[in-house]
Amino acid sequence: MSIRHYVLLATDGSISLPKDEILCTTNRENVYIFGFTGGLLDVDGVQIEENKYLDYTDPANWDTIFMKKGTATIPSPIIWGEVGDHIYITLINIGMEHLPDLKDFHTVHMHGAHVATQLDGFPESSFGVPMWEQKEGQPLEAPPKATYFFQPEDPGTLMYHCHVEASEHVQMGMYGALVIYPSMKSLAKNGITKCNRCGRWKLNGQEQYHIPKTATNRNFAYNNIHSYFDKEYVMLLSDIDSAWHESVSIPNNPNPFNAVDFKPDFWLINGRAFPDTLLPHPLSVGSDPNLTQINYESYVHVKTNEKFLLRMINMGYQVVPWHIHGWHFMVVGKDSNLSPFLVLAEDCKHINHKLTEMGFTNTIGSGETYDLIITADDKRGLYRNYIVNGQDGFPSLCEQLNEISKIDPTAIFDIPEEPVNCANPQLINYIEICNQPYGDPNNKFFPQFYPMHNHDDYKVTNNGKYPGGQLTMIQADAPDKPM
Ligand SMILES: [Cu+2]
């Protein structure tokens, strides 16, 4: 059990959204937003080096904290802990840089957390946190603040958001992911243990050879052996009506936006629209393992045969049919609750059925979360021969592509292999689907690339231009072991 103390600063800021499909495009739109900045201050009393400035008990930090006005982005920092942890979130309302007269309260509502009313962040039944103001010509005084507390009983994927005038403050961007891992204790209660001496994972005493010795309790989504994963990704989905944001940005607007006129024109994954979704996420910083455990990267990069977890969160106002190419996903949980099928799968091994809820499209309503696990199964067995050598009298697909490229070379698309940095576009590795830069002819098949996207395909646009919006890629490299 750990005591984890987060400090969130409520303020405004902006995000820059691409208006076309070109990677590293300079054709962009700035959208005014509200949000939380800040992050993890300390774990069990030990402060995180990068975030020491958040220690509001030290008056020497007040100026630095106050200066964070105007620096919010979408989404807000990830808050995470383990079952049984004591999670404290101190909220300081540092006010709006662009709208100094907007003295709205803010709160932290931990959506899906079973906290008491007093801690629920619904202001109408609890409280709001007023703005920290500096009196004319006076030094700063201690900020008004409140600390929320959450003791998670179950693992899973949740979210948090401000609940003050929620229609506006949520649309403006005051939200982030909240992730709870099982603890070693909660796993053990469900028969999952790790042998101290040999390092092997066991279920009810039976060794689980498919789970590597390097795995920790944070490689399980739930207290269930089937929820093991090698890598994990948060997919926090939201939508933006830029006209609404524009309207809020006008001080004392005589014609305030009517929420029922909501008509989004940008659709985001972790605060970004395609092709930005392929780039490294600007919020992924920090050398401390407490800061790097989980992040907002949206380009999924795995090895064939690995299992990856997608923590789907819908914070937008529209239902999202999330479609994943390449493989079926397994629903391991919904709204921080283990799928009942996985319980059955353990109890009823004799039943000749997968006993899992599988799919290739996951419909996610606003305020819902789903935990999806995908095994990046190897497709060489069925497909490599045809693609590389040809079969059943058909020439190889690569040969066919060669012919096509003689007629029109632009018909063979370049794929950006996990890009490195937008400021250095020359570092982006483009590859051709039949001309991979790997010497081993057996590996001619890799990497594999699969998109995943909102299947309301008009939401795969920016400003009406395809492709954009809620679209990203999964890259599966060659497996460790040869076939
Ligand atoms: Cu708010």
Automatic annotation (TrEMBL):
GO terms for molecular function: copper ion binding; oxidoreductase activity. Keywords: Copper, Metal-binding, Oxidoreductase. InterPro entries: Cu-oxidase-like_N, Cu-oxidase_fam, Cupredoxin. Residues 73-183 form the Plastocyanin-like domain. The keyword GTP-binding does not apply. Coiled coil: none annotated. This is Copper oxidase. It comes from Clostridium beijerinckii (Clostridium MP).
